[in-house]
Each structure stands twice: as structure tokens, then as C-alpha cells.
TrEMBL record:
Keywords, in A-Z order: Membrane, Transmembrane, Transmembrane helix
Lineage of origin: Bacteria, Bacillati, Actinomycetota, Actinomycetes, Kitasatosporales
Pfam family, any one: PQQ_2
Location of region: Disordered: 1-72, 104-153
Bias (Low complexity): 36-55
Protein name: Pyrrolo-quinoline quinone repeat domain-containing protein
Annotated source species: Streptomyces cirratus
Ranges of Pro residues composition bias in the record: 1-35
InterPro entries: PQQ_rpt_dom, Quinoprotein_ADH-like_sf, WD40/YVTN_repeat-like_dom_sf
Residue ranges crossing the lipid bilayer per the database entry: 80-101
Length: 545
């Protein structure tokens, strides 16, 4: 294995980790189109909006509605699979599939338990029966009892929603899921729908003139978020209509058209990020910030000279800028930024050829960096002054985040809490299990590893009360998944919620690239894309005691 080239004098040392960075691709490597697994997806096509298989998890079983290859599923997933196969050839990069837990398409790291999760003994109130719906009501069509035939010790399906929508042949996006107070809100094409968490009854619905094309999982302290809408219904429409939404009441706030900063500032793909009273809209080469309370424009990344931020990303009370420098090498730079003004307070410049591929956390700051030419990669922790703290180092195969805008927030199978990065490995040999590895952000060393167990996969959801919360997905459609808690010091997982087997598990296993939330003892699972072929298809499923 080789180390990356040394940076110029007075620059930080090159990132190294995972027991040094991987060397050249091994035999059998097949380069993706363009030869660049770290590259941004083409701005001219919305492939990155499609759900991706994943991140160590296999696709749903064959023959299950909504699985890859099923009628109505877009046929352009092949480039994604090729990219995944390409990066699998190196030491620490993922195997041939991704499992995007709702961070794709403009999402940022979920905080599924931030609103207070109950203990394993707490029993939230549930629905007396399961109901199905069209995504906008309290149930329509034939109902199915998903709880019939539950096994001993298994919990239940609280409610279920389906959708029946006519749309274009490629389907429609359905990214966006928020749990706020007593509501779970779901994006459904041109709508946002708020449901009661206990029984799934519709509380409110907002209809928009065009599709929701960008969202963030972040919310303000009073339950507001920002979404992006397409300018119109054309395939090439910019994703440039920023709208403030009150998720508790279902009321719209202000709407702003995000203006181009220059001729090259395309917004076919964009995503927002929230910190304090600031929301930013991040695009391919530029970013614009607005004041949430008023909608006023605050600043842009179009600085007159030097290193120009193409993304401002918030977390907690802090913000960072991801910038490209106007030197011969187009060097990447991470900046500390003031959320109100964008003024930078510190900088960390990456070695030549390296870019930020994902931000796991802003506070503490943890970034995933890679070199598109050499296929080298590292995960770094930085201090509050931008100085490098450590490179994560451990044996194992850790998947690269799914494709999308470079620097996009969140990575699906990760969580950061208490100065620890929890990262899921890709599948072990044979694809029947994986592990969660806990990294000390101060030293970069692995503190402990927890195996998923046979025929299951573990993925972190968040951390609270001194423990990691994770989803343990069954690889068998005959068994339900589980929500488990792992002590912060490591150890055997404790089951908090055991989803039922039978009819329910067959539907659960068929959710493809889902969005997940575990809040107050309830588990919410929803799709990120709908086939929209005029037939009933699954949308949202809720589990509980």
C-alpha cells in the first residue's frame, strides 16, 4: 500500500487511515464510466435521485414488489452498480452494493432519537388495527392484517400507508421523512403529508406545483424545515424553489427562488442544510444562505478570490464551508464559517487530488476524503480550530457514501456521538453479516466492534442515553428486523423492538433504499422513490409495542 504524495510546505500532512490508505486497484478492477468513483454524478441527469442498493445490504429478494428489476423501476441503475464494483477492488472501500438509509437526495444525518427515545420497557400507544392508504388519507382499498401470526415476543405493525399515483415512466421522488412531536411527515412527489404517529391518520397535506427535489433531515427548534422544489415539471428544470415548512402545523412559510451566481451555477441537483437561523442551498459549484426567520439572503459562496465554497453545511451550532481553491491543482479546502455571515475562521487544505466526499458530522467535525485518481481514501477528525486530530484506522471494508453532490451531508450507515464515530462495515465474506465499528475520534483507533449475527446486517441510526441505536435488518423475508441498543462501551446488543414476521416482514424486507427513524419507541420506515404506475405501492410503515 502507498501513502498519498506529500503536500507542499506549510500544508497539513496528507490524510492517512484505515492502516494507511489503500494502494492501486487489485486484479479484477473494472473502472466505472469516467474512472472516478469519487466524482460527482452528472449534473445533466437525475440518476442520483434514484434509490440505490446498498451500502453492504443486498437488494430485496427477487420477486418482491419494488425490488430492482421489477416492472416500472428505472433501468439506469447499472452505472451505480459498476461504480460500486469498482470501488470494491480496494482494501477499505465498499462491496458491490449500497444501502442508502435516507441520506441520499439531499439528506443530512438523521437524529432519530434526539426528540427523546423511550426505554426498552416503555410502550407507546399504538393503533388497534393496521390500515392501508393512498398516501393522503386514512386507508383505502383492501386492508391486510400484518399482525396476524406474530411470533412470541414479536412487536407489531402500528399502521401502514400505500400510495397510488400516476406519474412519468421513470417514477417520482419520495425523499423526505421527519418525526416532529406527534407527527411523522412524508414527502410524496408534489406533496408533503403529515400523519399521526400513533395511528397513521392524516393530520394535514400540502400540495405543491412541482416535485420536491431536495430536502434536509434537519429541523429548527420549533419544528420547521426547508425543502426545494423544481422550478417546473420539465426534466431539465432547476431545483431552485426554496420553501420554509412548519412540520407541526403543515403551514407554508416564505418561498425564495435561488438565483444563479454565474453561468456555470447549475441547480439541477441541490440540497439544503440548516444551522441556527440559517439555511443554505448547496449546488454543484456554489451555495447561497438565507435567514430562516425572514427569508432574507445572507451570503453566497461566490467570494471574489481565493477558495470558493460550493457548500455550507451546518450541524449543532456550527457551520463549515467546502471550497475549491483557484490554483492550478484546484485544491480542496475545508473552512470554519460563521452561520450568519459566512466569514471563515479557519482553514484546512487537503493534499493535491483529494476532495471531501462526505461529512459525517460538523460538531465534532468528521469528514470522508478521497483521491479520484489514485483511489486513496481516509476518514479524518478535525478539531474546532481546523487542525487534524486523527485518521480512522481499522481492518475491514467500509463502503463509500452513495453518489451525489460532493460533500453531501450524511452517509447512511454512520452515527457520531460522544467523540465516537460509529461506522458499519460492508458485508463480510458471503454477504451474510457485517459489523459496527466504534472509532475514537481523538486517536482514530477502533474501540470495539459488534457483529450483526448470522443472516443480518447492522446499521447505526443514532445515539442517546449512553448507547448506540441501530437497525438490525434480517436478510430473510420471513423474519422481521430489529431495533437494538449497544452500550457506548461496547457489548452485546439489547433488542428494543422486534418487528413481526409473516406478512409484515415480507413487506419490510421489500423497502428499497428506505428512510428510517426510531423515535419514542416507534420505528418508521418509508420509501425514497415511487414507481407511480397507477397501482398501489408501499409508502410508509410504522412499528411499535
Amino acid at each position: 500500500m502507498t501513502e498519498p504524495p506529500q503536500p507542499p510546505p506549510n500544508q497539513p500532512p496528507p490524510p492517512s487511515g484505515y492502516g494507511h490508505l489503500p494502494g492501486p486497484p487489485q486484479p479484477g478492477y473494472v473502472p466505472p464510466p469516467g474512472g472516478n468513483p469519487y466524482a460527482q454524478q452528472p449534473a445533466t441527469a437525475p440518476q442520483q435521485q434514484f434509490p440505490q442498493p446498498g451500502y453492504g445490504f443486498p437488494p430485496p429478494p427477487q420477486g418482491v414488489p419494488g425490488a430492482p428489476g421489477a416492472p416500472g423501476v428505472p433501468g439506469n441503475r447499472k452505472p451505480v452498480v459498476i461504480i460500486a464494483a469498482a470501488v470494491a477492488a480496494t482494501l477499505v472501500l465498499g462491496t458491490g452494493a449500497y444501502f442508502a438509509f435516507g441520506r441520499d437526495g439531499g439528506g443530512s444525518p438523521k437524529q432519530p432519537v434526539a426528540q427523546g427515545s423511550t426505554s426498552a420497557d416503555d410502550k407507546p400507544s399504538g393503533s388497534p388495527s393496521v390500515d392501508t392508504g393512498d398516501g393522503s388519507g386514512n386507508g383505502a382499498g383492501e386492508q391486510q392484517d400484518f399482525n396476524a401470526g406474530r411470533g412470541p415476543g414479536e412487536d407489531k405493525v402500528l399502521w401502514y400507508k400505500s400510495a397510488k399515483i400516476d406519474g412519468p415512466g421513470a417514477g417520482i421522488p419520495s425523499k423526505g421523512q421527519w418525526v416532529v412531536g406527534d407527527s411523522v411527515v412524508k414527502a410524496v412527489g408534489k406533496s408533503l403529508v403529515g400523519y399521526q404517529v400513533t395511528d397513521g391518520k392524516q393530520k394535514w397535506k400540502l400540495d405543491f406545483p412541482s416535485d420536491v427535489c431536495g430536502s434536509t433531515d434537519q429541523t429548527t427548534g420549533d419544528g420547521k424545515t426547508a425543502v426545494l422544489l423544481k422550478q417546473d415539471d420539465s426534466d431539465t428544470a432547476d431545483c431552485n424553489q426554496l420553501k420554509l415548512i412548519d412540520l407541526k402545523s403543515g403551514k407554508e412559510g416564505w418561498t425564495k427562488t435561488v438565483e444563479q451566481q454565474n453561468l456555470f451555477d447549475t441547480a439541477i441537483s441541490a440540497y439544503p442544510s440548516i444551522v441556527g437561523d440559517t439555511v443554505t442551498v448547496n449546488r454543484l459549484i456554489s451555495s447561497t444562505a438565507y435567514k430562516i426567520s425572514t427569508g432574507d439572503k445572507l451570503f453566497t459562496g461566490n467570494v471574489p478570490e481565493g477558495c470558493k465554497p460550493h457548500a455550507y453545511i451546518g450541524g449543532g451550532t456550527k457551520m463549515i464551508g467546502l471550497a475549491t481553491c483557484e490554483d492550478a491543482d484546484r485544491t480542496a479546502e475545508v473552512q470554519g464559517a460563521d452561520p450568519a455571515t459566512g466569514k471563515k475562521s479557519w482553514t484546512y487544505r487537503l493534499p493535491k487530488g483529494f476532495t471531501v466526499s462526505s461529512v459525517y458530522s460538523v460538531d465534532p467535525l468528521v469528514i470522508d476524503v478521497g483521491n479520484r485518481d489514485t483511489k486513496q481514501r481516509a476518514i479524518l477528525s478535525l478539531g474546532p480550530d481546523g487542525q487534524k486530530r486523527a485518521s480512522m484506522s481499522a481492518e475491514g471494508s467500509f463502503g463509500i457514501c452513495p453518489g451525489g453532490d460532493e460533500g453531501r451531508q450524511g452517509c447512511g450507515t454512520s452515527a457520531v456521538a460522544d467523540d465516537t464515530l460509529y461506522l458499519a462495515t460492508a458485508s463480510a465474506t458471503g454477504g451474510k453479516s457485517n459489523e459496527i465499528v466504534a472509532f475514537d475520534l481523538g486517536s482514530g483507533k477502533a474501540k470495539w466492534r459488534t457483529p450483526s449475527g448470522d443472516n443480518t446486517f447492522l446499521a447505526p441510526l443514532g445515539a442517546e442515553k449512553g448507547r448506540l441505536i441501530a437497525y438490525r435488518k434480517s436478510l430473510s423475508s420471513d423474519k422481521g428486523g430489529e431495533i437494538v441498543a449497544v452500550p457506548a462501551a461496547g457489548g452485546n446488543p439489547t433488542v428494543l423492538l422486534h418487528n413481526p414476521s409473516g406478512a409484515a416482514s415480507k413487506v419490510e424486507s421489500a423497502f428499497y433504499s428506505p428512510e428510517l427513524d426510531y423515535v419514542d419507541g416507534r420505528f418508521f420506515l418509508s420509501v425514497t422513490r415511487l414507481q407511480a404506475d397507477g397501482k398501489d405501492e408501499k409508502l410508509l410503515m410504522a412499528f411499535g409495542k
